[in-house]
């Protein structure tokens, strides 16, 4: 098979040639966009799921829908060591520019005041935000220093600007679980305020499975504030389409046994499908691609995943954290089909021969790094599907 014509895209956040299995979410978001512009009550949206299920890809696709409808949009990625002010200011600045309002100066000044409040009045020049906004900051608006008050004022003004044009504005926020507690609270309060006033502004967030719990811990009403959509692995039919449709565009096919073998190997996880698809295509001698071709390519695909998908995450852990991760893998039942290896924290401590309390620092650090999550009290799981299987296959 010609590698130049290889249609698969296993890059991080890279849109696959066939966005299979997400038609429902795309159609529902079209309804949200239309309802918001018409002043109908609608909630902001939160996508949750494991690593590798395509949350970022879907987030980008939803943003594309908003752009095509003339909305102003901006995107940012939350980081555990970074305040929300500057990256959100950049995202909102972009949204204002996309709206194309003939008189945006006041709102741009509010964006600037919101961002500059982080540095403080005595900050050095290098600590100040340089947004490319020529208008001066608007004093007394979004600059109180209380991020909750300031964000409500910022979103309210952006919503008013969008409403003037009969359009909407949307902020797309990836890795939402990494927001700090104050920023989570502020974001919830801002979404609550704009929804109550009917302003055409929404937030579309994406994060790990425990994100709803993070939001609920901040504001009890967050359960009613957002529409939660769990993004999961693809069904067999959807996975087949993700493989077959791009191949057909290049005049190639898979036989039925090959598709079955691909689903067994990838578990229907979109990132794995793209990774396997790329390797199988490069190594298959001709079309149609067969089960034998999948078997030949599997070791190379697994080796690629071991380095780029699993290994890169494992390397981020300290030696003590790696011991904890391996213990999680060993604590799972050997015949378990659970892709995230959910186990009790007490069982992990038992494998290591230590008291659970002594392992809290390692566990908490892994939670902050996004390598594990806690879906329920006393239990933890990997954020990466089949990470336990990878760890059990490693020597030492």
Automatic annotation (TrEMBL):
Keyword Disulfide bond applies: no
Residue ranges of the region described as Disordered: 1-21
Name of this protein: ATP-binding protein
Keywords annotated in UniProt: ATP-binding, Heme, Iron, Metal-binding, Nucleotide-binding
Lineage, highest ranks first: Bacteria, Bacillati, Actinomycetota, Actinomycetes, Propionibacteriales
Residue span(s) of domain Cytochrome c: 163-314
InterPro entries assigned to the protein according to its UniProt record, in alphabetical order: AAA_16, Cyt_c-like_dom, P-loop_NTPase
Protein's UniProt keywords contain Transcription regulation: no
SUPFAM superfamilies: P-loop containing nucleoside triphosphate hydrolases (SSF52540)
Gene Ontology MF, one: heme binding
Pfam families: AAA_16
């Amino acid at each position: 098979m010609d590698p130049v014509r290889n249609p698969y895209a296993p890059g991080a956040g890279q849109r696959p040639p066939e966005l299979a299995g997400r038609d429902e979410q795309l159609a529902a978001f079209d309804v949200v966009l239309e309802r918001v512009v018409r002043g109908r009550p609608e909630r902001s949206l939160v996508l949750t799921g494991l690593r590798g299920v395509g949350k970022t890809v879907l987030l980008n696709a939803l943003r594309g829908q908003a752009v095509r409808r003339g909305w102003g949009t901006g995107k940012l990625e939350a980081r555990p060591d970074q305040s929300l002010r500057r990256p959100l200011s950049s995202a909102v600045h972009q949204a204002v520019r996309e709206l194309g309002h003939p008189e945006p100066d006041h709102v741009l000044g509010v964006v600037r005041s919101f961002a500059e409040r982080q540095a403080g009045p005595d900050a050095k020049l290098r600590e100040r935000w340089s947004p490319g906004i020529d208008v001066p900051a608007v004093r007394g608006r979004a600059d109180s220093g209380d991020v909750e008050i300031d964000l409500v004022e910022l979103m309210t003004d952006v919503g008013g600007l969008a409403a003037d044009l009969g359009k909407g504005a949307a902020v797309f926020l990836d890795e939402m679980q990494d927001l700090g507690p104050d920023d989570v609270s502020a974001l919830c309060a801002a979404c609550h305020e704009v929804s109550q006033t009917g302003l055409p502004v929404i937030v579309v967030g994406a994060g790990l499975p425990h994100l709803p719990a993070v939001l609920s811990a901040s504001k009890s009403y967050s359960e009613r504030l957002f529409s939660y959509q769990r993004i999961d692995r693809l069904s067999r039919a959807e996975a087949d389409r993700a493989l077959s449709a791009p191949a057909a565009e290049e005049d190639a096919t898979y036989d039925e046994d090959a598709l079955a073998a691909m689903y067994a190997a990838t578990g229907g996880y979109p990132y794995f499908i793209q990774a396997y698809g790329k390797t199988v295509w490069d190594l298959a001698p001709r079309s149609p691609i067969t089960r034998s071709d999948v078997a030949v390519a599997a070791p190379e695909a697994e080796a690629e995943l071991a380095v780029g998908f699993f290994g890169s995450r494992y390397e981020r852990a300290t030696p003590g954290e790696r011991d904890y991760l391996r213990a999680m893998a060993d604590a799972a039942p050997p015949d378990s089909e659970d892709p995230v290896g959910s186990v009790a924290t007490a069982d992990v401590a038992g494998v290591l021969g230590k008291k659970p309390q002594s392992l809290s620092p390692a566990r908490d650090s892994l939670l902050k790094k996004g390598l594990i999550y806690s879906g329920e009290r006393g239990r933890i799981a990997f954020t990466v599907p089949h990470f336990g299987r990878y760890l059990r296959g490693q020597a030492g």
